[in-house]
UniProtKB/TrEMBL annotation:
Keywords: Hydrolase, Lipid degradation, Lipid metabolism, Membrane, Transmembrane, Transmembrane helix. Pfam families: PLDc_2. Gene3D superfamilies: Endonuclease Chain A. Residues 145-172 form the PLD phosphodiesterase domain. GO terms for biological process: lipid catabolic process; piRNA processing. The chain crosses the membrane at residues 12-32. Coiled coil: none annotated. The lineage of its organism: Eukaryota, Metazoa, Ecdysozoa, Arthropoda, Hexapoda. It comes from Sipha flava. InterPro entries: PLD-like_dom (IPR025202), PLD_domain (IPR051406), PLipase_D/transphosphatidylase (IPR001736). Belongs to the phospholipase D family. MitoPLD/Zucchini subfamily. PANTHER family: CARDIOLIPIN HYDROLASE, MITOCHONDRIAL CARDIOLIPIN HYDROLASE. One of its GO terms (molecular function) is RNA endonuclease activity producing 5'-phosphomonoesters, hydrolytic mechanism. This is Mitochondrial cardiolipin hydrolase.
């Protein structure tokens, strides 16, 4: 009789342990999926597309998140940059948009470690990054002038990458047909991390 009682207790305890372990595994998977949700977003700029009412006259909040408005799209990119917590690696052929430049500087002021790679450095655009203590590397003179550092990608916290056709310039925002793509998919982010690391070493002065 004692044997059967022991067996019953053991079976009951085993079932409770197994059920508890299964519940923990389910909960762990839930939180993993929650914090590692795949994020993919695409933005298009359409040449001389008109600004929305909000950005045209600043008197109404109508269509503030209008995907056809170039300024709304710029502020969406700024929103991505504002989510940066630790590191921001920027590899950009040309960068002179004041709004996007200020978002990068704001990240630096928040304590984000910012690194920038550009093709050329001039006082109208990227020169001031260096004066603020932001780490920056420029294509070296040893490379032929016709050889361009033509990349356009930004890595956020080593977890997300923004890429596409668009230089972060005023002309690109206001006049060009451009695409911008954000993803946190590891298989895409990781090669860009390695590419940034490679060019950072190549442009070491």
């Amino acid at each position: 009789m004692m044997y059967y009682n022991y067996l019953f207790t053991w079976n009951t305890t085993t079932k409770l342990v197994i059920n508890f372990a299964c519940a923990c595994a389910i909960l762990a998977n839930f939180w993993y999926d929650y914090y590692n949700q795949e994020q993919t977003e695409v933005i298009f700029f359409h040449g001389n597309q008109s600004q929305c009412d909000f950005h045209r006259n600043k008197t109404t909040l109508l269509n503030y998140l209008n995907s056809e408005c170039p300024m709304c799209n710029v502020y969406k990119i700024i929103g991505w940059l504002n989510e940066t917590k630790k590191t921001l690696d920027i590899c950009m052929y040309s960068l002179n948009s004041e709004l996007l430049t200020n978002a990068i500087i704001d990240a630096h002021k928040r304590g984000v470690h910012v690194r920038i790679i550009v093709d050329e450095d001039n006082i109208r655009s990227t020169w001031k990054f260096g004066t603020m203590g932001i780490a920056k590397r420029v294509k070296l003179m040893q490379f032929n002038a016709k050889m361009l550092m033509h990349h356009k990608f930004i890595i956020i916290d080593n977890k997300k990458v923004i890429l596409g056709s668009m230089n972060w310039t005023v002309n690109a925002v206001r006049r060009n047909w451009e695409n911008v793509f954000l993803t946190n998919k590891y298989q895409i982010v990781d090669p860009f991390r390695h590419e940034f690391k490679t060019i950072w070493k190549q442009f070491d002065q």
